[in-house]
């Protein structure tokens, strides 16, 4: 058990704003807050469940096709899979597996950064997506500080 | 007058992503009999145009952006084509075996994902059981060890890929004419230490798929099943092969349609048809024509097509598999799962064999040769035969790219499977029942289709089933999730 906060960022950087997750990871990794582990991938995988179980909390970071601007941040619970193909797995499903298979007790959050351009090939984020990314990064810096602080306080109480 | 007047369409549409979603339409006549079934897969075809003008050596890395589930397959198919472009007709033993190890790692993790995450709930709970239970969380609750094995098998496969390709996804291991690294003794020993467990879990999964198929044969034999041709590569000695081989096609009765076809000549034997209602192409065997020349690819076709496996346990299992149909091709859609697990065990055996081969620690990684301006790379991806065909100009830029992906080849077969299930579940009433939806999903799942996962943004919607008439009026609907 390594503890701390796991940041699971994903998406296809080759499809414009679908690369918001990867861009978020790149920005956080330049100066990662203490206690935060950053992972970046093309998409979620079932084995991410094992990684989640090693942490106190997980934040899934992805681009959003629809939803609030500049981003949506919400608590999620684990759930069963509804997919009929190997090509789709949701944050709730990965968290559900982490709970069921690996006994994870950690909290789960989704940070869905609103994007606009998904159908073009290319690595550049749209102007509005960049603005949303910046707002999401500001929010996360404060969130990470709060979460890691509270985790460390809990550790001290346990001692 | 509308030619379809009086008929109805049933629409099953899982709107899962910006693109890459599937939709099923079932056309009925006035007596509510099925006249046509179509699985619409929105496959983005722009990639072939996108890479035109790019330098050819970028292609093995670029094409992995097509898919996050089987990037290794695109990486290796493109690398094989690029090898030919640089005149590297025979790679060094180290490069060939490193690539083969990477490919078997890919098969192991991809087949494990499909079996444990998607297929095992259908098998363990029955595909008419409650959907709230029939999922991987349900399996984790009732069979926690099995579910954990699935995750850890996949993790092992991903780690093999990482060690050989540099990254778990979108690696750079295969380069023009070879590979950019070997396998260190420390990496080898780490994997060897896990092999007994990996082999044991693969045997258990295969046992489950085999026993399930045999125990439920009466029900499974007609389920979504139909006769078809089968296509794959096989090695020059007829053995099962996934990285290097020659094209072979058999008909439903086992008669060879063609055999030992050089990869570079694939388009003399395979043609592609465009249909107005789908973005996907429909490949067919030229000598038979588009109507009857379609074929199946993937685990079922590969096990049907090969003469033998070159590993003892998989070969013994293949013989048992072929006994069921007296040595003729097995045409049962649900036999895909059994065949897939034979392949998973074979990959585990091959990984063990390769890890004991000192060539993996060799230093001779790259060869060169005389440049060409056109090349084809064909491999077997987990879902079936994958074709990459490129032409370049004097400035080394791609001028033409043609990709035939596995799901494109299985396109017509999946239509047939959906049609068969719909025919068997419609009971004179134009109604989308839970049973029909379950059956169609189970039949499509057997093929493990690639749904062109070019983007993966949040914003998904649940599965929605609609029955509409030809004027577009929804007369019945069913939503899942």
Helices and strands in order, then pairings?
The complex is a heterodimer of chains A (159) and B (481).
Chain A: E1 5-10, H1 20-30, E2 36-41, H2 48-52, E3 57-64, E4 71-76, H3 91-102, E5 107-114, H4 127-158
Parallel strand pairs in A: 1-2, 1-3, 3-5
Antiparallel strand pairs in A: 4-5
Chain B: E1 8-14, E2 22-28, E3 34-41, H1 46-50, H2 59-62, H3 71-85, H4 93-125, H5 136-142, H6 144-165, E4 174-175, E5 178-179, H7 185-192, H8 195-215, H9 217-220, E6 229-234, E7 246-250, E8 256-261, H10 266-269, E9 270-274, E10 281-285, E11 295-296, H11 299-305, H12 312-323, H13 335-355, E12 374-381, E13 384-392, E14 398-404, H14 406-409, H15 411-425, H16 434-446, E15 463-469, E16 474-480
Parallel strand pairs in B: 6-11
Antiparallel strand pairs in B: 1-2, 1-15, 2-3, 4-5, 6-7, 7-8, 9-10, 12-13, 13-14, 15-16
Helix pairs in contact in B: 4-6, 4-13, 5-6, 6-8, 8-13, 11-13, 12-13, 15-16
Could you explain how this protein is built, in words?
The complex is a heterodimer of chains A (159) and B (481). Chain A has 4 helices and 5 strands, in the order E-H-E-H-E-E-H-E-H. Chain A is an alpha/beta fold. The longest helix of chain A has 32 residues, at 127-158. Chain B is of the alpha+beta class and 481 residues long. Helices cover 41% and strands 19% of the residues of chain B. In chain B, the strands form 5 sheets. A 5-stranded antiparallel beta sheet of chain B has the order 3-2-1-15-16. A 4-stranded mixed beta sheet of chain B has the order 8-7-6-11. In chain B, strands 12-13-14 form a 3-stranded antiparallel beta sheet. In chain B, helix 4 packs antiparallel against helix 6 (144-165) and helix 15 (411-425) runs antiparallel to helix 16. Chains A and B meet through strand 3 and helix 3 of A and helix 1, helix 4, helix 5, helix 6 and helix 16 of B.
């Amino acid at each position: 058990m390594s503890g701390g906060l796991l940041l699971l960022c994903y998406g296809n950087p080759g499809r414009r704003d679908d690369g918001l997750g990867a861009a978020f990871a790149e920005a956080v990794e330049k100066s990662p807050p203490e206690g935060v582990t950053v992972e970046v991938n093309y998409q979620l995988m079932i084995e991410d469940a094992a990684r989640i179980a090693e942490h106190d909390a997980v934040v899934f970071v992805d681009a959003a096709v629809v939803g609030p601007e500049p981003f949506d941040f919400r608590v999620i619970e684990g759930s069963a899979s509804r997919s009929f193909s190997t090509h789709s797995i949701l944050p709730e499903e990965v968290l559900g597996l982490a709970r069921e298979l690996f006994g994870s007790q950690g909290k789960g959050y989704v940070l869905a950064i609103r994007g606009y351009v998904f159908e073009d090939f290319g690595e550049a984020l749209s102007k509005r997506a960049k603005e949303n990314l910046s707002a999401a990064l500001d929010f996360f810096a404060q969130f990470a500080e709060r979460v890691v602080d509270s985790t460390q306080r809990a550790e001290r109480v346990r001692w | 007058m509308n030619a379809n007047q009086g008929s109805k369409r049933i629409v099953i549409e899982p709107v899962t992503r910006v693109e890459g979603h599937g939709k099923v339409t079932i056309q009925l006549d006035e007596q509510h009999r099925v006249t046509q079934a179509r699985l619409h897969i929105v496959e983005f075809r722009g990639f072939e145009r996108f890479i035109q003008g790019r330098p050819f050596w970028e292609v093995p890395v670029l094409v992995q952006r097509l898919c996050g589930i089987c990037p290794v397959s695109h990486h290796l198919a493109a690398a094989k084509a690029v090898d030919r472009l640089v005149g590297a007709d025979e790679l060094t033993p180290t490069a060939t075996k490193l690539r083969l190890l990477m490919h078997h790692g890919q098969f192991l993790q991809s087949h494990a994902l499909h079996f444990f995450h998607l297929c095992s709930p259908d098998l363990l709970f029955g595909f008419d059981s409650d959907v709230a239970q029939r999922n991987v969380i349900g399996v984790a609750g009732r069979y926690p060890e099995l579910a954990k094995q699935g995750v850890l098998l996949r993790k092992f496969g991903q780690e093999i890929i990482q060690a050989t390709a540099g990254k778990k996804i979108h690696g750079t291991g295969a380069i023009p004419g070879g590979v950019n690294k070997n396998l260190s003794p420390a990496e080898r020993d780490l994997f060897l230490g896990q092999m007994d467990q990996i082999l044991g879990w693969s045997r258990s999964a295969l046992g489950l798929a085999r026993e399930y198929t045999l125990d439920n044969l009466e029900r499974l034999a007609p389920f979504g099943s139909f006769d078809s041709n089968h296509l794959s590569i096989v090695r020059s000695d007829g053995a099962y092969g996934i990285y290097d081989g020659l094209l072979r096609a058999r008909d439903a009765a086992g008669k060879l349609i063609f055999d030992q076809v050089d990869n570079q000549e694939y388009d003399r034997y395979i043609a592609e048809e465009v249909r107005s209602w789908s973005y996907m192409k429909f490949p067919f065997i030229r000598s038979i024509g588009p109507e009857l020349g379609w074929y199946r690819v993937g685990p079922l076709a590969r096990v049907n097509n090969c003469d033998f496996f070159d590993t003892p346990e998989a070969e013994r299992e293949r013989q048992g598999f072929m006994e069921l149909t007296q040595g003729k091709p097995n045409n049962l859609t649900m036999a895909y799962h059994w065949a897939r697990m034979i392949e998973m065990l074979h990959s585990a055996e091959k990984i063990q064999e390769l890890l004991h081969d000192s060539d993996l620690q060799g230093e001779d990684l790259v060869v060169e040769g005389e440049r060409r301006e056109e090349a084809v790379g064909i491999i077997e991806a987990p879902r079936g035969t994958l074709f990459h065909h490129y032409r370049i100009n004097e400035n080394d830029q791609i001028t033409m790219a043609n990709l035939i992906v596995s799901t494109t080849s299985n396109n017509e077969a999946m239509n047939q499977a959906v049609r068969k299930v719909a025919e068997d579940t419609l009971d004179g009433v134009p109604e989308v029942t839970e049973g029909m939806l379950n059956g169609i999903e189970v039949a499509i799942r057997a093929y493990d289709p690639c749904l062109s996962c070019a983007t993966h943004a949040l914003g998904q919607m649940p599965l929605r089933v609609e029955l509409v008439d030809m004027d577009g009026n929804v007369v019945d609907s069913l939503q899942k999730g």
